[in-house]
User: Which sequence fits this backbone?
């Protein structure tokens, strides 16, 4: 309950971002009325696929692109109305960590210039002091001070990202926007950078907006998570809540596609039988395997007390069996498909009814702290919890292992 | 055995003469199975793939060992002979589908070109065949897609097109070099599932190259963990993931944030990941003994001077570690 | 069995070794050395540099040693090359060697300064246009296109005719007639670089537009522009030659083009009057062209080391 006492440091309300399209007058709306708060020293994650508007949100918060409507307030200062010098005066307070360390460092600058430039621009210290501070920053991100005179291309990918982080911290910001900070890195280096970000957040007392498409990373790094789909925030909850069982069909689809945990994947596969491998039947050996699995599979639908929830079970099954596969990756790309003007914009939802097509659902807090943009949020969450319960139960694990 | 690599050494250029990039690599890949070659960048994964394809960049040479594709030794083949094998009996899927496709040619034309080069079907049927293939990889409206340009596709769709190009001549071996790294997590799983499906239809062997152990586990039957040019551990996917025998494999596994769902998610997430410190030593600066010596949390005195040989840790499961 | 714990020094050694060659006061020389390492990779450009150095030394020191006024009539017209007049004399009996030596000063200085004017206009127009885009870009590109459709030589001729044939007007006219390529190139580079994250990072750090253009983007845009500007030197030398040939050069300053232009009617009777100044133009243009190729290699910032 301490959370409510911490004041909201970043407040985003009803943020809209549109890009003019090159061809004609009509523009592409990347962010549609997104709103969230981040309390001080907390990390909020935004997840979604590419094109979902999460990066546009980050850039708009950074004032690197112009928001077409809405308000962004940082520590009580309204950022959207500031321009020119007034905006630059605020810049030291919020900094950004970019995705690709290869392109976010000026190839013509040495590490020392990369780190002292932001300090110089916000008038921090004398030249000699700044170099001393740069040395300190390097140490804090785990680079040796002998690398002060090196150019970016002389660093490895992971080291470069450390340098990017050091630069973002050079102005002593309070808010850091991290846009996919680890997705361009090797799995092994990702862990180093995530650990570094975590410890820096605690040491510097940073408030972080963390953008990623990787749910595992988000779960690890964030206190709260927002899920974006086609420019809309469709679900928002504290991390534990969201991952214990999400409450929006799209989040389930996202989740199922990200399950790389070997044991859990096997378990889910067993629950849903050949669902994961539909279309694969040619190999007799595979068939046999599938048959063996089937005999193991508990009849999931009969274990449920409420029979009216069949369709939701089906929905989760659908999400897990990779419905996205059938779409050929087409439908999920918002730039390529028609925008539904009315109703819910998750067009492929297996639970969609007539009501969903005519009435646009709004983001509602169906449980304390858990917001979802779906009529059936509470039901989906309850059902999902049961599925995951089953999948991760030790007894079930033993059963799969025995097979 | 579709692919049999034995005791392969590859040397590459450096300021102080040639240095070993891949050392004593042995792989065996039967038909209709998938082997994942896992490791960080700089470990020699991509060079290995390129050496099999006969596409080593200038300055890189196979110095010893053998690469056999369907029983035929590839290292002795001339450039022309290798070119005839490429696409026909072995094909490659690249990491970045945007750069691997020609931006000024329609997707259909690029596919028919491959079909005709390898005489898969007569020219009159090439169009229909290409459209059928586009449908087979799960693209909606394949007729429309046939005459689209690569930039009209999303990343995942482009990778599907790359899959078509790879499978259209029915190769025995498909090498997929980080096929999902440039894609969203959601699309990653789809592409891996697609590869599995295509494999079950054609019976091709897949050599999957990736830095992501967990992604590899979706598709692979066997895992080979490569570090600094040497094999650290090899074995069936389940065995390697459930009981990793090499500290490097354990490090890789520990360093990946695992999605915890359901009740696990409520237990709280450990604040730090078990990251492997430091970075891969570049070729030429590798330790004399065990390649992983400089980063190993459990290194012994022996490890510095002696190179451990693969030791059996279970059925078909080997690890090169003294412990 | 003991567990070896300290392995961290292995990795740091890697870094310190690399930085030691660059650290300290030798920053400028370090950069110069790096430049030279890239430059010398291209043998043709090294030849170009030697050639250019020879030409420059010749036209600077030459007239000091060979003190003969190139406008003085020293012998009979059309004296072929002999011991007194190594390169012969022209149609009024002026020494060709003196003309070639001191004429080079005019030709090369016009080339250099015209290229500087070209670069200055081109960089300004191109960077404003590429950085801001929108209506500024549209306007400036229309202006550029207007200049581009004018025939270069004709345009320069018109300017010189209007303002009179002096060294300054010739230089400025050549500069005004040839900045469009640099402008287009700069614009393209700025548009490409503007989208890079490091530019965004500088914006986030609080850099003003002027700083972004001058400090962040310009150094990254320079390599291809420097190469183009070097080519412009040779182009300007040629253009100056053409103007002088047509009688539109400064008549009070000896230049290579002037010698050729004045003797063009007697070229078949006295080959030496046109061959030597022609060779001088050819060699200097060639050397500049060869050199700019090497500049391209040397200025490329990301020459990735292999291991």
Assistant:
């Amino acid at each position: 309950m301490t959370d409510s006492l911490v004041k909201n440091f970043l407040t985003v309300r009803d943020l809209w971002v549109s890009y003019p399209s090159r061809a004609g007058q009509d523009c592409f709306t990347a962010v549609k009325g997104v709103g969230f708060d981040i309390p001080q020293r907390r990390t909020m994650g935004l997840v979604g696929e590419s094109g979902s508007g999460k990066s546009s949100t980050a850039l708009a918060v950074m004032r690197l692109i112009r928001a077409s409507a809405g308000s962004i307030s940082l520590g009580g200062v309204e950022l959207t109305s500031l321009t020119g010098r007034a905006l630059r005066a605020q810049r030291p307070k919020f900094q950004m960590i970019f995705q690709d360390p290869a392109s976010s460092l000026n190839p013509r600058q040495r590490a020392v210039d990369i780190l002292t430039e932001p300090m110089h621009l916000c008038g921090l210290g004398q030249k000699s002091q700044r170099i001393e501070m740069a040395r300190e920053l390097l140490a804090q991100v785990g680079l040796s001070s002998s690398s002060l005179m090196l150019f970016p291309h002389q660093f490895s990918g992971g080291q470069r990202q450390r340098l990017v982080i050091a630069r973002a911290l050079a102005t002593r910001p309070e808010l850091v926007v991290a846009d996919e900070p680890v997705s361009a890195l090797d799995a092994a280096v990702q862990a180093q950078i995530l650990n570094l970000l975590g410890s820096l957040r605690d040491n510097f007392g940073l408030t972080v907006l963390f953008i990623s498409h990787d749910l595992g990373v988000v779960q690890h790094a964030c206190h709260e998570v927002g899920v974006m789909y086609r420019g809309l925030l469709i679900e928002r909850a504290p991390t534990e809540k969201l991952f214990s069982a999400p409450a929006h069909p799209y989040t389930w689809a996202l989740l199922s596609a990200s399950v790389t945990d070997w044991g859990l994947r096997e378990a889910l596969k067993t629950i849903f039988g050949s669902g994961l491998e539909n279309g694969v039947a040619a190999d007799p050996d595979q068939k046999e395997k599938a048959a063996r699995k089937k005999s193991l599979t508990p009849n999931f639908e009969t274990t449920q007390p409420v029979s009216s929830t069949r369709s939701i079970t089906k929905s989760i099954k659908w999400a897990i069996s990779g419905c996205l596969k059938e779409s050929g990756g087409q439908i999920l790309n918002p730039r390529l498909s028609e925008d539904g003007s009315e109703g819910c914009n998750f067009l492929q939802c297996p639970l969609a009814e007539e009501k969903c097509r005519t009435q646009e659902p709004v983001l509602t807090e169906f449980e304390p702290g858990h917001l979802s943009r779906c009529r059936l949020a509470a039901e989906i969450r309850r059902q999902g919890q049961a599925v995951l319960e089953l999948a991760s139960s030790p007894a079930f694990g033993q059963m799969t292992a025995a097979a | 055995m579709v692919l049999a690599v034995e005791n392969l050494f590859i040397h590459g250029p450096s300021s102080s003469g040639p240095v070993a990039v891949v050392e004593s690599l042995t792989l065996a890949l039967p038909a209709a199975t998938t082997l994942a070659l896992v490791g960080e960048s700089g470990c020699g994964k991509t060079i290995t793939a390129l050496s099999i394809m006969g596409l080593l960049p200038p300055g890189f040479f196979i110095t010893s060992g053998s690469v056999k594709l369907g029983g035929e030794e590839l290292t002795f083949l001339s450039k022309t002979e290798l070119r005839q094998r490429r696409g026909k009996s072995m094909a490659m899927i690249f990491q970045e589908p945007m750069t691997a496709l020609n931006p000024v040619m329609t997707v259909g034309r690029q596919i028919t070109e491959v079909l005709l080069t390898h005489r898969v079907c007569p020219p009159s049927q090439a169009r229909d065949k290409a459209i059928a293939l586009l449908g087979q990889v799960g693209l909606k409206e394949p007729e429309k897609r046939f005459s689209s340009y690569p930039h009209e596709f999303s990343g995942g769709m482009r990778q599907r097109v790359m899959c078509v190009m790879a499978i259209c001549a029915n190769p025995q071996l498909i090498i997929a070099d980080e096929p999902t790294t440039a894609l969203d997590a959601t699309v990653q799983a789809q592409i891996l599932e697609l590869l599995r499906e295509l494999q079950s239809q054609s019976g091709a062997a897949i050599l999957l190259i990736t830095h992501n152990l967990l992604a590899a586990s979706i598709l692979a039957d066997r895992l080979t963990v490569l570090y600094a040019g040497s094999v650290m551990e090899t074995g069936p996917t389940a065995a390697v993931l459930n009981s990793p025998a090499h500290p490097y494999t354990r490090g890789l596994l520990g360093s990946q944030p695992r999605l915890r769902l359901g009740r696990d998610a409520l237990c709280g997430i450990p604040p730090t990941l078990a990251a492997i410190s430091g970075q891969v030593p570049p070729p030429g600066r590798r330790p004399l003994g065990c390649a992983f010596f400089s980063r190993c949390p459990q290194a012994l005195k022996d490890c510095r001077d002696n190179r451990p040989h693969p030791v059996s840790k279970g059925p078909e499961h080997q690890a090169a570690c003294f412990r | 069995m003991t567990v070896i714990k300290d392995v961290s020094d292995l990795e740091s050694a890697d870094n310190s070794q690399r930085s030691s060659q660059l650290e300290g006061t030798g920053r400028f020389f370090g950069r110069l050395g790096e430049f030279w390492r890239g430059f010398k990779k291209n043998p043709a450009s090294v030849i170009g540099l030697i050639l250019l150095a020879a030409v420059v030394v010749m036209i600077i020191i030459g007239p000091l040693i060979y003190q003969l006024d190139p406008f003085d009539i020293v012998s009979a017209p059309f004296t072929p090359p002999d011991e007194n007049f190594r390169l012969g004399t022209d149609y009024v009996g002026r020494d060709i060697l003196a003309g070639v030596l001191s004429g080079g000063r005019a030709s090369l200085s016009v080339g250099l300064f015209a290229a500087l004017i070209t670069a200055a206009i081109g960089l300004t127009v191109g960077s404003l246009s590429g950085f801001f885009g929108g209506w500024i870009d549209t306007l400036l590109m229309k202006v550029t296109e207007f200049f581009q459709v004018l025939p270069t030589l004709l345009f320069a001729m018109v300017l010189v005719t209007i303002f009179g044939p002096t060294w300054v007007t010739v230089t400025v006219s050549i500069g005004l007639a040839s900045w469009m390529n640099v402008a287009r190139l700069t614009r393209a580079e700025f548009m490409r670089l503007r989208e890079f994250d490091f530019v965004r990072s500088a914006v986030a750090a609080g850099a003003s537009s002027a700083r972004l253009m001058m400090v962040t983007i310009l150094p990254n845009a320079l390599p291809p522009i420097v190469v183009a500007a070097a080519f412009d030197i040779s182009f300007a030398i040629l253009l100056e030659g053409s103007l002088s040939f047509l009688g539109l050069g400064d008549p009070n300053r000896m230049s290579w083009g002037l010698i050729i232009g004045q003797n063009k009617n007697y070229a078949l009777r006295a080959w030496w009057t046109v061959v030597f100044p022609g060779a001088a133009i050819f060699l200097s243009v060639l050397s500049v062209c060869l050199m700019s190729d090497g500049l391209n290699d040397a200025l490329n910032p990301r020459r990735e080391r292999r291991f």
